[in-house]
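thought: user wants a sequence for this fold. calling inverse folding tool.
action: design(structure=
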């Protein structure tokens, strides 16, 4: 009886040590919002917290944007990714890889955020043959929602004068929306489509 029990024990030990541990997939940790925690209900006199760029933007975002025909190119859907990387000081960069009606294109961007002044500036070098400079303020509310208001200087492309206005609504920690309007040859600003961005959240594994 003792011998049989010993053999059974050894068999269990050998079996348990011979089976490799299976990696455990951990659920990705979702980014946190920037809603202030006062330990009480918010009041009108409470100050809106300064937007934390380094908490929100860094990483890769997938986007889709349907645009009408314009001097910047034919109408259609733009799809791709934009990856934000924090650099020194108040600066960061982004690299965009996308596909549109005319084929693949890239955008290299430099972004400056002045937190105390609550202003953004951005320079885009677009492989489709033009450059854009955007600048504007960022505002927010005590619900943790922030909006960036960008406007470009005049750009001449394909023989026409173009200006753009952007309203970037940071609707959640993993989603934001850009509402765009375009003016051609100093005409009124008209709808230029909405771009939707969703953040890629990496999945980690452990043993």
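)
observation: tool returned 207 residues.
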């Amino acid at each position: 009886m003792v011998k049989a029990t010993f053999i059974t024990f050894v068999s269990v030990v050998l079996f348990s040590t011979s089976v490799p541990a299976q990696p455990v997939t951990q659920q990705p940790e979702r980014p946190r919002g920037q809603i202030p925690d006062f330990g009480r209900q918010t009041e009108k006199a409470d100050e809106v917290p300064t937007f934390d760029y380094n908490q929100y933007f860094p990483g890769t975002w997938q986007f889709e944007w349907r645009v009408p025909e314009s001097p910047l190119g034919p109408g259609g859907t733009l799809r791709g990714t934009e990856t934000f990387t924090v650099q020194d000081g108040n600066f960061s960069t982004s690299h965009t890889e996308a596909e549109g009606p005319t084929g693949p294109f890239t955008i290299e961007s430099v972004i400056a955020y002045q937190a105390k002044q609550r202003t953004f500036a951005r320079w885009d070098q677009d492989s489709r043959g033009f450059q854009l400079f955007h600048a504007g303020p960022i505002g927010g509310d005590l619900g943790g929602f922030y909006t960036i208001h960008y406007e470009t200087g005049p750009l001449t492309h394909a023989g026409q004068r173009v200006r753009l206005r952007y309203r970037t609504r940071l609707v959640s920690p993993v989603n934001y929306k850009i509402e765009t309007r375009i003016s051609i040859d100093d005409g009124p600003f008209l709808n230029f489509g909405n771009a939707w961005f969703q953040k890629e959240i990496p999945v980690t594994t452990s043993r």
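thought: summarizing for user.
answer: Here is the designed sequence. The first strand starts at residue 24 and ends at 26.
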